[in-house]
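Need a sequence for this fold. Nothing fancy.
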């Protein structure tokens, strides 16, 4: 078996589950997600879906604003979108079906990567600080935190490093205590 085939085989058997402590599940109820983005320096998450826009407090899981508006006349394929509610008047960078990106690393060293051993099915691996890259060492014990839902539309962290979001056709959100200790 080639090194690549062996790596793919090892990635296929990775367990899917919730992230380890100190991470905890916040919310996984929103379906039809097309793009997501965090407001700068906050844990407020703008969620675009086939049924509108919402702002989620990603630490508590509370929906703090909601709009049924899905029409962005200025950009039908947004990588940024107008905020609503507490984000009114701001343009928020989003990642999803049309591109864009979220933070891949936290200030204290956690990181996420997308794997696709059975493309088009993808998964997201949460890697703790100082752990090896799962593609370089697939025997390392990193956990796939979201998988089996088709392509990953976005995966990444808030600027604070306190919140992790994975958008597939569903929204998956985890949080942890403020890593800065504030």
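Here you go.
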């Amino acid at each position: 078996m080639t090194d690549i085939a062996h790596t793919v085989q090892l990635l296929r058997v990775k367990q899917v589950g919730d992230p380890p402590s100190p991470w905890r599940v916040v919310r996984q109820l929103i379906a039809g997600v097309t793009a997501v983005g965090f407001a700068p320096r906050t844990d407020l998450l703008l969620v675009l879906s086939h049924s509108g826009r919402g702002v989620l407090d990603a630490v508590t899981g509370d929906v703090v604003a909601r709009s049924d508006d899905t029409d962005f006349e200025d950009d039908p394929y947004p990588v940024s979108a107008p905020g609503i509610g507490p984000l009114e008047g701001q343009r928020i960078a989003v990642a999803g079906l049309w591109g864009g990106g979220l933070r891949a690393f936290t200030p204290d060293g956690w990181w996420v990567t997308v794997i696709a051993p059975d493309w088009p099915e993808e998964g997201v691996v949460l890697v703790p600080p100082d752990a090896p890259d799962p593609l370089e060492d697939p025997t390392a014990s990193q956990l796939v935190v979201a998988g089996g839902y088709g392509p990953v539309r976005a995966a990444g962290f808030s600027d604070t490093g306190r919140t992790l979001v994975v958008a597939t056709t569903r929204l998956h959100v985890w949080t942890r205590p403020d890593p800065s200790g504030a």
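For context: The CA atoms of residues 46 and 55 lie 5 Å apart.
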